[in-house]
């Protein structure tokens, strides 16, 4: 049903924008591309004219189907950090997507003064995140408020709407103060208006009904710290101090739990420091231990189906993308990781590991190789991970009837003890350097001797290579070497072809003739042809012998809906460290 609804909704919205000629092409695209197109069309659509109810219902079906694949976080599993004396209220801290919190009274949306959501699809503001998860009913509800109000929403006040397709019962919309340009320190008025946002939301909570268990729970996002540019550290101080002050001034409040939700690593550190600083002044939490998130997610329908498929399978293919490395902490999209390991390269405009791909604006070869050698050393010394340990326990059930195909060049499978004869890495590996000019087919060399020779000559401040004689050169032509990783026509795959051949033979001789499950982990849309679409083709051509479990965040957890309807695939959206913990190590997963 969800496939048909998605098709009809996209047809309507494309025709409304006079793009109906694109539908034929879009219908053959990856399911994630179709969903992203839907999100963009809804983001830019004004509330008038209202959508036909049949289209609204179709959108509801689509969003609810998407949500059914997510491993939601019940509020009661978030451990409180402190209790405010003489009140029923506890404060907690959580990092994640605020739209995936369940068993919660209300989440807070940092809105703009028009209160209609963000109309820029590229913005990753919380306003966009929440409206995308809820759908157009939220914009219509906000529009009804604004039509009656007739004026922009005042800074520091609040408006309440239903949560509609969210797990949360309500959404509290509040407009924080906005810093413009280089204003410097916020004024006293701006600080007071930010504090007013928190007070207004807590006031509004008093008028909302409690949950079935009697609790009343609110989750605050980081108000004004994104595009509104309020200094994060000051915003955290105001947020926590205002909430504590309000609760102490309302000892009979019905609000039992306040959760500060963050998405960025930096914000987590600020809140953690602030709340820990208050623990010595306020009561320790007296509540019993929260229920286990693993126990709750063990009963998720997608998890149960995936566990059953694994139990029934004779053969296993692990298909691992960048999301698996990210689950160990090696996240190529993380600014915090880049700043920690490569601070000297920030002035070049590099902020993430992904930014270095194709980068040519190095000041010198010594700087370039300083980066490469620091990167190789980081990967080489990366600690072993429980994520790979869980996968190892899984493969033991299949003995020799498994194979691993990964687009990751980090070599973490081998580093974590997997048999390299059962791994293929078609995108290359940091273990090797190659002649950039490909002067000979066999001009591929182990990187470790070059790294060992260069490490004493890496300046800890500039992170540059101080001895240019340590720049790797081809022993055949004398030309410069480069990482043996696919990044252009220069890539030399010679060292990886034998394992790719073994993998293909494994698929033909074993996987196609047995009950096989593909466990696809963290394979999103960066290079979908390597893993994602390859795995889908294997399933579609298998005549029922191969099924796929696709797990990860965002696109990496979204399986084709038509394949799900035919029971050929299942998608699980969640962090892989937790997904694998539930999928492999929970009691219900044991044979």
From TrEMBL:
<keyword id="KW-0479">Metal-binding</keyword>
<dbReference type="InterPro" id="IPR029035">
    <property type="entry name" value="DHS-like_NAD/FAD-binding_dom"/>
</dbReference>
<protein>
    <recommendedName>
        <fullName>Macro domain-containing protein</fullName>
    </recommendedName>
</protein>
<dbReference type="GO" id="GO:0016740">
    <property type="term" value="F:transferase activity"/>
</dbReference>
<dbReference type="InterPro" id="IPR026591">
    <property type="entry name" value="Sirtuin_cat_small_dom_sf"/>
</dbReference>
<dbReference type="InterPro" id="IPR002589">
    <property type="entry name" value="Macro_dom"/>
</dbReference>
<dbReference type="GO" id="GO:0046872">
    <property type="term" value="F:metal ion binding"/>
</dbReference>
<dbReference type="GO" id="GO:0016798">
    <property type="term" value="F:hydrolase activity, acting on glycosyl bonds"/>
</dbReference>
<feature type="domain" description="Macro">
    <location>
        <begin position="78"/>
        <end position="279"/>
    </location>
</feature>
<dbReference type="Pfam" id="PF01661">
    <property type="entry name" value="Macro"/>
</dbReference>
<keyword id="KW-0378">Hydrolase</keyword>
<keyword id="KW-0808">Transferase</keyword>
<keyword id="KW-0326">Glycosidase</keyword>
<keyword id="KW-0862">Zinc</keyword>
<dbReference type="InterPro" id="IPR043472">
    <property type="entry name" value="Macro_dom-like"/>
</dbReference>
């Amino acid at each position: 049903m969800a496939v048909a609804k998605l098709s009809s909704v996209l047809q309507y919205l494309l025709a409304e924008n006079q793009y109906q000629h694109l539908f034929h092409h879009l219908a053959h695209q990856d399911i994630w591309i179709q969903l992203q197109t839907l999100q963009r069309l809804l983001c830019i659509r004004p509330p008038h004219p209202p959508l036909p109810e049949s289209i609204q219902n179709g959108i509801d079906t689509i969003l609810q189907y998407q949500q059914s694949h997510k491993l939601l976080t019940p509020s009661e599993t978030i451990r409180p950090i402190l209790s405010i004396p003489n009140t029923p209220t506890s404060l907690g801290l959580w990092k994640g997507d605020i739209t995936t919190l369940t068993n919660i009274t209300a989440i807070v949306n940092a809105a703009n003064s028009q209160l209609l959501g963000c109309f820029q699809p590229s913005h990753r503001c919380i306003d966009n995140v929440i409206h995308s998860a809820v759908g157009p009913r939220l914009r219509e509800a906000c529009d009804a408020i604004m039509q009656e109000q007739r004026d922009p929403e005042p800074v520091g006040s609040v408006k309440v709407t239903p949560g509609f397709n969210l797990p949360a019962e309500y959404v509290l919309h509040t407009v924080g103060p906005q810093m413009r340009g280089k204003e410097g320190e916020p004024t006293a008025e701006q600080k007071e208006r930010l504090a007013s946002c928190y007070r207004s939301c807590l006031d509004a909570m008093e008028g909302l009904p409690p949950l079935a268990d009697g609790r009343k729970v609110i989750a605050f996002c980081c108000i004004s710290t994104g595009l509104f540019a309020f200094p994060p550290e000051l915003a955290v101080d105001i947020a926590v101090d205002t909430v504590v002050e309000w609760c102490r001034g309302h000892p009979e409040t019905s609000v039992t739990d306040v959760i500060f939700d963050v998405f960025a690593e930096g914000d987590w550190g600020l809140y953690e420091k602030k709340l820990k600083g208050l623990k010595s002044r306020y009561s320790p939490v007296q509540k019993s231990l929260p229920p286990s998130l693993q126990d709750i997610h063990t009963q998720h329908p997608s998890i149960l189906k995936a566990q059953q498929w694994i139990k029934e399978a004779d053969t296993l293919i692990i298909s691992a993308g960048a999301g698996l490395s990210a689950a160990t902490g090696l996240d190529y999209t993380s600014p915090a990781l880049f700043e920690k390991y490569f601070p000297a390269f920030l002035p070049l405009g590099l902020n993430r590991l992904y930014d270095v791909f194709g980068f040519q604006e190095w000041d010198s070869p010594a700087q370039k190789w300083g980066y490469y050698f620091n990167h190789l050393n980081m990967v080489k010394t990366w600690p072993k991970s429980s994520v790979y340990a869980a996968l190892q326990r899984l493969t033991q059930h299949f003995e020799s009837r498994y194979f691993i195909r990964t687009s990751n060049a980090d070599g973490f499978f081998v580093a974590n003890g997997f048999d390299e004869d059962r791994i293929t890495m078609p995108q290359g590996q940091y273990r090797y350097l190659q002649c950039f000019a490909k002067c000979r087919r066999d001009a591929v060399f182990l990187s470790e001797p070059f790294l060992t020779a260069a490490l004493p000559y890496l300046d800890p401040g500039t992170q540059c290579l101080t001895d240019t004689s340590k720049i790797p050169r081809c022993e055949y032509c004398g030309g410069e070497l480069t990482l043996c990783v696919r990044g252009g026509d220069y890539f030399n795959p010679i060292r990886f072809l034998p394992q790719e051949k073994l993998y293909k033979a494994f698929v033909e001789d074993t996987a196609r003739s047995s009950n096989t499950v593909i466990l696809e982990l963290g394979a999103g849309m960066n290079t979908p042809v390597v893993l994602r679409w390859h795995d889908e083709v294997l399933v579609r051509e298998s005549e029922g012998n191969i099924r796929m479990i696709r797990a990860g965040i965002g696109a990496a957890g979204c399986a084709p809906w038509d394949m799900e309807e035919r029971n050929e695939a299942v998608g699980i959206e969640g962090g892989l460290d937790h997904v694998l913990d539930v999928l492999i190590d929970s009691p219900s997963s044991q044979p």
